[in-house]
Amino acid sequence: MSILQSEYNSVKEKSVSGRYVVNEQIADFLESNKEKLIVRTIGESVQEREIKSLQLGNGPIKILMWSQMHGNESTTTKAVLDFVNFLNAESALAQDILEKCTLLIIPILNPDGAAVYTRINANEIDLNRDAQNRTQPESKVLRNVFNEFKPDYCFNLHDQRTIFNVGQTPKPATVSFLAPAHDAERSISKTRGISMQLIVAMNQVLQEMIPGQVGRYDDGFNSNCVGDSFQMLNVPTILFESGHYPEDYGRERTREYIFHALLSSVSSIAKNTIENYHRDDYFEIPENGKLFFDVLIENAQTLDSSLLKEDAIGLLYTEVLEDGKVEFVPRIDKKGNLKGYYGHKTYNCLIEADLNELRQQSFYQLFKA
Predict the structure, then answer these.
(1) Residue 366 pLDDT > 90, yes or no?
(2) Which sign, positive or negative, has the C-alpha torsion 44, 130, 79, 192?
(3) DSSP readout, 212-241?
(4) 26 forms bridges with which residues in the sheet?
(5) Which of 165, 4, 159 is nearest to 79 (CA)?
(6) How many Cβ atoms sit within 10 Å of the Cβ of residue 284?
(7) 119, 72 contact by CB (below 8 A)
(8) DSSP 286
(9) CA torsion 255→258→263→264, rounded to 10°?
């Protein structure tokens, strides 16, 4: 299930864009929608920032979503707001979803990490490795909501780095999914199988939009991860990973594809069509590779005479928060024989036009001998 580009543009939340998304923006969104949503303060972060939830729909099927468990992973937060706008727009499909489902959404679980644009919380703990001990207030908030709401489905919403490609292909993993394991053997329980079927449904929609750019995340088992933990409790859980789309470092295009994934999965749940999708097709989605650099410099001996003729340089961007905006600062990640790697931007120094363009880049000074 998908909608037209024009329909998406009509529900895209214009007040939130880019990579830096914080509590204050969500507060404005919630205030403007307070007549259509049930908004609650469900707890506080380490630094006493409010953690909010929003609820809509009145159906018997309960779906729990949470985003920005890692504070610097904001793409799914933007997509969730778009999805809420869609559900509030009173289309026939939206009404059907709201009649069949109740959705409880935590837009920002880690507001302290969001404020300073870090993965971890203010106590320097990765909340997605705190599912069992629940040492952090944010971890306790999520588990309390899980216990009280008793969801039938869980959506664990994240971003992933630009390094990921699909399989062995030069396609970026723009969206990746995982049906988390519930045991060390990674066996397929009934609930994990349902997670796989829903991912197949989303993949079918996304392949029409971004063919070859959907990957499958590593399913190594870790009971301290929230997705694995909830899968262990027999609730179908899906990990969403927002990745890179060419030239989209603000992740506005990826945001749109996550929206379509949310819509297709929730529609499948509401319409009770999950059995139309086969869990075996989940394994046809290629696993993610880690073969991308943000910038790949080929035949780099032109830049540095100490490099061998066949050598290359791979750059990755470090995301740095400066004055409320995320800047992408290049650093050299690897030098040497990088055959088999790809670049989101590639320069071949044996091509004069590429070399001239490269010399105009601000990061050119990184390679000069």
Answers:
(1) no
(2) negative
(3) T-EEE------TTSHHHHHHHTT--EEEEE
(4) none
(5) 159
(6) 10
(7) yes
(8) P
(9) 150
Instruction: Work out the mean pLDDT of the chain and round it to a whole number.
Output: 95
Helices 190-209, 252-270: axis angle to 10 degrees equals 130
- Measured between alpha carbons, how far is residue 192 from residues 113, 144, 153, 186 in Å? 30, 22, 11, 10
Beta strand 165-166 pairing with 288-289:
antiparallel
Locate 265 and state its tokens: 């999965």
**Residue 334 burial (10 A CB sphere; 0-12, 13-18, 19+):** middle
How far is 360 from 356, CA to CA, in rounded Å? 7
Grouping H, G, I as helix, E, B as strand and the rest as coil, residue 243 is coil
Distance CA 358, CA 355 (A): 5
Diameter of the chain measured on Cα atoms: 68
Q: Structure tokens of 152?
A: 């039938």
Which CATH number does the domain 5-289 belong to among 3.30.565.10, 3.40.50.300, 3.40.630.10, 3.30.70.270? 3.40.630.10
- List pLDDT tens digits, range 94-144: 999 999 999 999 999 999 999 999 999 999 999 999 999 999 999 999 999
Classify the C-alpha dihedral 124-128-134-138 as positive or negative. Answer: positive
Of these residues, 13, 73, 241, 298, which one is catalytic?
A: 241
Report the pLDDT averaged over residues 138-159. Answer: 98
Q: Would you list the domain boundaries of the chain?
A: 5-289, 292-366
* Rounded Cα–Cα distance for residues 99 and 102 (Å): 8
- Would you state the pLDDT for residue 368? 66
DSSP class of residue 270 equals H
Q: Is 73 a catalytic residue?
A: no
Q: What is the dihedral of CA 226, 230, 232, 238, to 10 degrees?
A: -90
